[in-house]
Amino acid sequence: MERPHRKKTDVLNKKDSSRLTPNASRSFASRGFTLIEIIMVMVLLGIVGSVASMIIFQGSKSYSEEEIRKDLMTQGRLAVERMAREIRLAKCTASGNSCNPSATDITNWSSTELRFLDINYQGKGFRYDSGASTLTLCRSQSACSGNEDILADNVSSLTFTYFKNDGTTSAAAVGEIWIIKAALTLSRGAQSTSFMIEVHPRAFK
């Protein structure tokens, strides 16, 4: 039986195609990225990097603000607790069944400074130094300068107010003082915390 005769041109065409296909494949693989593709990748990486940096920055900022807030809260709480404890021990001068402060018991009662003698006859007081932004504990009845311990820094305001025994009327004389209030504010950067105490010295009656 006679075999079908293949044309010579068919054989050549198959050989040529077998030679061309790998070369074309290699040419496509070695072509790489176009300039537009590289630019698009760079833009996307830039966007991702910007978003990631913003998230990291905000997280770091929040952590820093929280640490500042904790520090201010700790300082302020310790300061007002110390003030309340010391003021509660303020001395008074007995007269019959009553005991009211005299000018020798409370020697200074301004809005930013309080100095007094405690029941153990020790001079005590508190002073706000606006220049240094500090609240100091005085260890002298007559003057604070040179006899002070810093209770808190970053103090932006400290105000003392003095009231009669009704708790609302301001005391006009030292002998009328029954309640002492103190408002303290600590600030650092954008963070600020405020504290308020109201103290009636135990000996006053």
> DSSP strand (E) fraction?
25-35%
Supply the helix-strand structural class. alpha+beta
Number of helices: 2
Mean pLDDT: 83
Report the count of strand segments: 10
Helix percent band = 25-40%
Radius of gyration: 41 Å
Distance between the termini: 139 Å
Shape: rod-shaped
What's the number of domains?
A: 1
Oligomer category: single chain
Sequence of strands across the biggest β-sheet: 3-4-5-6-7
Biggest β-sheet, characterized? Answer: 5 strands, antiparallel
- Element pattern in H and E: HHEEEEEEEEEE
Low-confidence stretches: none
Key structural traits:
29% strand, 37% helix, 205 residues, alpha+beta, 10 strands, 3-stranded antiparallel sheet, rod-shaped
Can you describe this structure?
By secondary structure, this protein is an alpha+beta fold. The chain is built from 2 helices and 10 strands; from the N terminus they run ααββββββββββ. It has one domain. The strands form 3 sheets. It has a 5-stranded antiparallel sheet, with helices on one face. The longest helix is centred in the N-terminal third of the chain and has 53 residues, at 35-87.
Topology summary:
Layout: H1 8-29, H2 35-87, E1 93-95, E2 98-100, E3 106-109, E4 113-117, E5 123-129, E6 134-138, E7 148-152, E8 155-163, E9 179-188, E10 191-199
Antiparallel strand pairs: 1-2, 3-4, 4-5, 5-6, 6-7, 8-9, 9-10
